Backbone:
């Protein structure tokens, strides 16, 4: 097989031709990182110009008790009653939202992801959603990964469509993209053997899309997968998207090495992160958005990724627990003003969105925090006494 | 310097080899004929004539400079050097190097002979050396006897023998640095700015006419059909005529290693004639036609090595798309640093005192002298523990900086340095310009006298700290008691004049405007044109946490990468740009290697200042090597002058 040349790939990208597996691998292997980044940036600007999205959201991880034994996860095989294990009562979970409402924080989304808890009834989840909606009927609930949904179908004896329909009736609005990890069977067997298969993950999303639910998709990179397996993962997502059009956003997730069974692996570094983002933007030509999840990348790398294909920084995020148990040193929340400032300082145009990418605020309506360097003079330096 | 018309002409001895022709090109054609009287000799003879006072200026081997009994100064900007293969300094023989029992040395060359002896010793080889006349050297190579061939004889010799070692290449393989074979040198006072200008101009004219020189040489020499091309490639690809920052590092490494191996009695330091205005010391600058430039044209020119004027710098800062600016800087880095290597150093930051009178608003580390409890000066016991740990961890240097402590006289530093040097195998990269300026003020001594005494007691190099923004508008606002831009640069100029290498830094994010940043780069570049004394530039954004400056400015990663890439393009005479992972984090540090960086800085065992203000990152040497590899480069350990060191 001839090595796909960079200029050949560039021509394809500019002509809107889909890239092949070989093209994707060649982009990963191309020595000049900035060339790959600049090409991804071309696509990003063609799709979104300078617009860069974020939302105001709250994360709820209602339980970290989990039957699965994924080797990359710091929640793995955590049983009820063990140190560090927790399961929130409904009241506790709802109080997280109530606290935001009391603080007049105009959040638009709650992101709900949990462990695979063996001892909870299905009603725990429906009531969790229903209670949140009772508190704030307009809030968007982006809840339960395909892995959880698959687990519920098995455990409670329902089809995917039945699980999805009942949860939607209780208040679920869309599905987050987690749990995809890497689709290649070789890797899944080694790092998350008891998780749903690639086909099952894709089937959950296919079903959701058919029912009219939008969803996101992810990829966990930086464990033991090969570059081919990364591109293969993207191509499977692209194929489902061609079929349904239901994915909104792709989110590459960097493996974080602390407190889990893969601690000996070093985890990807900054150059690898940016490269993965750029290749994803180029290969996934039919998924509109690419999210630089700052919780995982760190604020500095996430900001840089805005020039390597990414057009979304995720949200303000309150109370993130999954990555922080794996050693993430990022803050657990950023204020909207901080996010706006980071986007503006990157030379981009911030847009507050809701989960479905409707514009909530832009321009002057955003929390204003213009970049300092353009309009300040020496005398403006303030000294705190 | 003005000279009376009837003054005696300066006697100048140059070398007649092909590689010296570009240097004497202008002089041979009448340039400065009213000032100079030119003669041609073998290199070692040039040095003898200079030593005996029979000539005033000689193109002499650097080894002769190191061994000179009288103080000498070298002409800035002019050298015969090579980075890698030189082709005319060869060890040849019928047997491989390791099997040679005797090596005949060409009596005409001191530097090459010293280099060969040094390389033999460092490889554990001990052949007998026998000096023979220049003309007879080739006949001496047979059987277990090799010969060191220098000069034009090398071209033919390389084809005659089965075993050929190019000493320029061997030196680069060991140190990663250029080797300097010869420099113009004379007694300290014999050359004034005008004469220096003439010698530099002579080379500038020769550089343009290298093809012509090669043709003339081919016609005059032994007939070879490929001669003109061969000689032209030699003059353009093998020999480097610049005495720039890397060449100065090469000389310093040679002097130090030679001294350690017992070849040179003294640990010499190459010192240059000081010049108020230098032009030729700058690398050749591509001249752009005078027309309005698009950002694309500016980027393409800068990537190719053209010098940016201040308005160009401002334009690129404001308008160049980030990745295109980065790609141009990346192209520049590749041109300056062949071989895909990224260097790093293991050293330790030791802050000997936190007592400081300067009260900079951006600093969270200092305590004023009046502070009752928290001021400290590290004791010898504490210092010894830190130094020993550094040695144990493979560290080669101490970055020694502290506050401006009114209780520490110059003698305190002298004692400290002498004790350090006697007790630990560590280089002292110490005392930023501000500290040196303050000691001079305390002692009522000239800055130069302070630096001389510090060197005499063991100072190896000066760190570039305290530069912040080299524009007094900004300095006054953030650190009114700190030295001015001119003073900071003057300390560096004096250090360079005394033969010290230094670094330069910039801290941005104080609310300065782009013009202040470009001014900073411009001032550094202008001094570097004159001295070539800076080895590297390092910049980082202001770390605000806990300081009295309320941060309003943009100190995000994007701005860092933009400033960093601009600096790579603007500072065309700085060989190295160091990324700042301690402030930006290793991820962005790694990305900056693709925005013009060629050095990952220090595996810092200790850092006290920026870590007080919110920078939290720590990396071991192993981590650093991994980050470098994953960015696609080969890690190499170095010392302060970027001389490669074997990893432990």
Residues:
């Amino acid at each position: 097989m001839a090595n796909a040349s960079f200029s050949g790939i560039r021509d394809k990208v500019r002509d809107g031709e889909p890239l092949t597996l070989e093209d994707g691998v060649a982009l990963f292997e191309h020595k000049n990182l900035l060339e790959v980044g600049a090409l991804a940036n071309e696509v990003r600007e063609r799709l979104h110009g300078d617009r860069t999205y974020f939302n105001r959201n709250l994360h709820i991880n209602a339980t970290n008790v989990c039957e699965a034994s994924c080797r990359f996860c710091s929640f793995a095989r955590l049983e009820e009653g063990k140190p560090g294990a927790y399961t929130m009562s409904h009241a506790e979970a709802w109080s997280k939202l109530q606290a935001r409402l009391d603080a007049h924080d105009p959040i638009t989304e709650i992101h709900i992801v949990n462990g695979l808890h063996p001892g909870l009834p299905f009603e725990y989840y429906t009531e969790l959603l229903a209670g949140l909606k009772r508190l704030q009927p307009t809030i968007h609930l982006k809840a339960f990964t395909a892995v959880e949904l698959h687990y519920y179908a098995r455990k409670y004896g329902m089809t995917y469509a039945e699980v999805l329909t009942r949860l939607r009736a209780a208040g679920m609005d869309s599905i987050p993209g987690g749990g995809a990890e890497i689709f290649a069977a070789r890797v899944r067997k080694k790092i998350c053997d008891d998780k749903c298969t690639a086909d099952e993950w894709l089937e959950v999303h296919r079903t959701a899309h058919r029912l009219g639910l939008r969803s996101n998709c992810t990829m966990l990179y930086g464990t033991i997968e090969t570059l081919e397996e990364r591109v293969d993962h993207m191509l499977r997502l692209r194929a489902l998207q061609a079929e349904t059009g239901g994915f909104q956003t792709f989110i590459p997730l960097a493996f974080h090495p602390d407190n889990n069974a893969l601690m000996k692996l070093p985890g990807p570094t900054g150059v690898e992160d940016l490269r993965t983002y750029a290749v994803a933007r180029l290969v996934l030509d039919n998924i509109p958005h690419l999210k630089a999840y700052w919780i995982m990348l760190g604020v500095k790398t996430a900001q840089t990724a805005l020039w390597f294909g990414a057009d979304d920084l995720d949200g303000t995020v309150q109370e993130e627990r999954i990555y922080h148990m794996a050693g993430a040193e990022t803050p657990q929340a950023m204020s909207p003003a901080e996010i706006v400032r980071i986007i503006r300082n990157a030379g981009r145009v911030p847009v507050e969105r809701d989960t479905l990418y409707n514009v909530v605020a832009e321009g002057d309506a955003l929390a204003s925090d213009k970049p300092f360097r353009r309009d300040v003079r020496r005398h403006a330096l303030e000294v705190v006494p | 310097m003005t000279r009376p018309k009837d003054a005696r002409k300066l006697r100048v001895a140059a070398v007649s080899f092909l590689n010296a022709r570009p240097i004497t090109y202008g002089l041979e054609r009448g340039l400065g004929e009213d000032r100079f009287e030119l003669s041609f000799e073998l290199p070692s003879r040039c040095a003898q004539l200079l030593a005996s006072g029979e000539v005033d200026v000689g193109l002499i081997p650097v080894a002769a400079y190191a061994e000179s009994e009288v103080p000498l100064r070298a002409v800035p900007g002019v050298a015969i050097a090579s980075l890698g293969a030189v082709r005319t300094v060869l060890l040849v023989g019928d047997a491989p190097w390791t099997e040679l029992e005797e090596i005949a040395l060409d009596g005409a060359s001191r530097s090459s002979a010293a280099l060969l002896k040094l390389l033999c010793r460092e490889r554990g080889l001990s052949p007998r050396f026998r000096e023979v006349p220049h003309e007879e050297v080739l006949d001496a190579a047979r059987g277990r006897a090799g010969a060191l061939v220098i000069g034009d004889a090398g071209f033919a010799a390389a084809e005659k023998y089965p075993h050929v070692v190019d000493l320029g290449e061997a030196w680069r393989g060991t140190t990663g640095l250029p080797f300097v074979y010869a420099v113009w040198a004379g007694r300290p006072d014999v050359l004034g700015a005008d004469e220096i200008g003439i010698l530099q101009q002579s080379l500038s004219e020769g550089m343009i006419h290298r093809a012509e020189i090669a043709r003339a040489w081919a016609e005059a020499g032994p007939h070879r059909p490929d001669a003109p091309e061969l000689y032209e490639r030699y003059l353009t690809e093998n020999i480097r005529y610049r005495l720039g920052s890397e060449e100065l590092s090469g000389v310093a490494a040679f002097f130090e290693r030679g001294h350690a191996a017992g070849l040179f009695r003294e640990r010499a330091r190459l010192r240059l004639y000081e010049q108020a205005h230098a032009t030729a010391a700058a690398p050749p600058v591509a001249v752009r036609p005078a027309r309005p430039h698009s950002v694309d044209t500016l980027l393409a020119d800068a990537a190719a090595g053209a010098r940016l004027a201040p308005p160009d710098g401002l334009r690129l800062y404001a308008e160049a798309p980030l990745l295109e600016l980065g790609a141009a800087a990346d192209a520049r880095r590749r041109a300056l640093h062949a071989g895909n290597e990224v260097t790093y150093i293991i050293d330790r930051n030791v802050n000997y005192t936190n007592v400081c009178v300067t009260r900079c608003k951006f600093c969270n580390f200092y305590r004023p002298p009046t502070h009752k409890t928290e001021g400290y000066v590290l004791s010898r016991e504490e210092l010894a523990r830190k130094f020993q740990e550094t040695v144990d961890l493979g560290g080669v240097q101490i970055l020694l900086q502290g506050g401006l402590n009114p209780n520490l006289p110059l003698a305190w530093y002298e004692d400290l340095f002498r004790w350090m040097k006697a007790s630990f195998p560590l280089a002292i990269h110490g005392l930023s310009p501000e500290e040196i300026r303050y000691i001079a003020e305390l002692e009522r001594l000239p800055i130069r006298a302070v630096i001389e005494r510090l060197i005499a007691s063991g100072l190896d190099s000066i760190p570039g700290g305290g530069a912040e923004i080299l524009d007094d508008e900004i300095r006054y606002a953030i650190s009114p008691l700190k030295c001015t831009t001119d003073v900071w640069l003057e300390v560096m100029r004096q250090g360079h004049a005394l033969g010290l290498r230094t670094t330069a830094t910039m801290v941005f994010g104080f609310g300065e405007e782009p013009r202040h940043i470009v001014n900073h780069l411009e001032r550094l570049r202008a001094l570097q044109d004159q001295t070539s004394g800076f080895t590297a530039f390092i910049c980082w954004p202001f770390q605000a946490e806990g300081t009295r400056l309320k941060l309003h400015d943009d100190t995000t990663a994007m701005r860092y990468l933009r400033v960093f890439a601009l600096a790579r393009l603007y500072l065309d005479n700085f060989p190295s740009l160091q990324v700042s992972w301690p402030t930006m984090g290793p991820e962005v540090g790694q990305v900056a290697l693709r925005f013009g960086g060629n050095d990952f800085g220090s595996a810092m065992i200790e850092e006290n200042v920026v870590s007080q203000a919110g920078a939290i990152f720590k990396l071991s040497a192993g981590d650093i090597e991994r980050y470098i590899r994953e960015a696609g480069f080969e890690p190499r350990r170095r010392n302060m002058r970027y001389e490669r060191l074997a990893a432990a």
